[in-house]
Design goal:
With 293 residues, the protein is α+β, with helices and mostly antiparallel strands. The chain folds into 3 domains: 49 residues, 2-Layer Sandwich (Uridine Diphospho-n-acetylenolpyruvylglucosamine Reductase, domain 2); 116 residues, Uridine Diphospho-n-acetylenolpyruvylglucosamine Reductase, domain 3 (2-Layer Sandwich); 107 residues, CO dehydrogenase flavoprotein, C-terminal domain (Enolase-like, domain 1). It contains 11 helices and 14 strands. The strands form 4 sheets. Strands 4-5-10-6-7 form a 5-stranded antiparallel sheet. A 4-stranded antiparallel sheet has the order 11-12-13-14. Strands 1-3-2 form a 3-stranded parallel sheet, with helices on one face. GO terms for molecular function: FAD binding; oxidoreductase activity.
């Protein structure tokens, strides 16, 4: 199938892109296009004008800043995070999850900004950003603003972007030392959208005890959600002493799973439990890429 007719614009600057967005309600941003183009081919989206951000050099930057944080332009492709040695060493939870994004060809073209703005509940990026306390920098004609990850995605395909705004950068805080990470998602086939997934993090102190824990569950509800309280029982334990099954039940009890064509709410309850258990087992037994020096 082919999309309906549209005009194509490729601005060279963010200000030019923002000006184009003011030209009408049928103007649509395209980043990697891995979600938008299929929707256009099915006539589920029929924009009159496409504004391609690929020509804006600043949006493709991936840098470790002077304060130790990681800044990623909205146009950074998924696979760049997997191939960047600094990302793997300082933020190992990112490649742990992002390698599960769709397939190799999609990861070559799809972008972090496109995924976050599409706001699919099954997308891995929203879960990663929640887990690592990322911040989103938004730009509009009236200036820029910054939102924490938990305030950016509002629901299924719904974000906090105002008309005329663009997500231009995602910032991850400096590496968390002494943390171990685990990830698990369940999909019908490798590369399909997850029916449920979990990301877990355990902070190990100098005495070998868990001093803090983080948990994000995604794909089960309308958006990813932090469920750190479900892991309160593991704090103060040694990693090999935790009860992942109990934590999985606590997390599943906190979710209000949705039903759709892929899975019923009842099935998702069990999938959440399984994903949390497996993510915790991995976090407890696999050291992170950054050591606690």
């Amino acid at each position: 199938m082919k999309p309906s007719a549209f005009a194509y614009r490729r601005p060279a600057s963010l200000q030019e892109a923002l000006s184009l967005l003011e030209q009408g309600d049928d103007v649509k941003i395209i980043a990697g296009g891995q979600s938008l183009v299929p929707a256009m081919n099915l006539r589920m989206a029929t924009p009159g004008v496409l504004v391609d951000l690929a020509g804006i050099e600043s949006l493709s930057a991936l840098n470790v800043e002077d304060d130790g944080s990681l800044s990623a332009g909205a146009m950074v492709a998924h696979n760049r995070f997997l191939r960047d040695a600094q990302v793997g060493a300082g933020w190992p939870a990112i490649p742990l999850a992002v390698k599960h994004v769709a397939h190799e060809q999609v990861r070559n073209r799809g972008t972090i900004g496109g995924s976050l703005c599409h706001a699919d509940p099954a997308a891995e990026w929203a879960a990663v950003c929640l887990l690592l306390d990322a911040e989103m920098k938004l730009a509009g004609r009236l200036g820029a603003r910054v939102l924490p990850a938990g305030e950016f995605i509002k629901g299924v395909y719904e974000t906090a972007l105002e008309p005329g705004e663009v997500l231009c950068q995602v910032r991850f805080p400096a590496p968390l030392r002494g943390w171990r990470w685990g990830f698990h998602e369940i999909a019908r086939r490798r590369g399909d959208f997850a029916m449920a997934g979990a990301l877990a993090g355990l902070a190990i102190d100098d005495s070998g005890l868990i001093s803090a824990a983080r948990l994000v569950v995604f794909a089960a509800e309308d958006r990813a959600r932090r469920l750190d309280a479900a892991l309160v029982g593991v704090v103060g334990c040694k990693p090999d002493e935790i009860d992942p099954d109990l934590a999985g039940l606590a997390a599943a009890a906190e979710v209000d799973p949705r039903s759709d064509l892929h899975a019923s709410a009842a099935l998702r309850f069990h999938l959440v439990h399984s994903c949390v258990v497996r993510a915790l087992v991995e976090a407890a037994g696999k050291p992170a890429g950054v050591r606690n020096d």
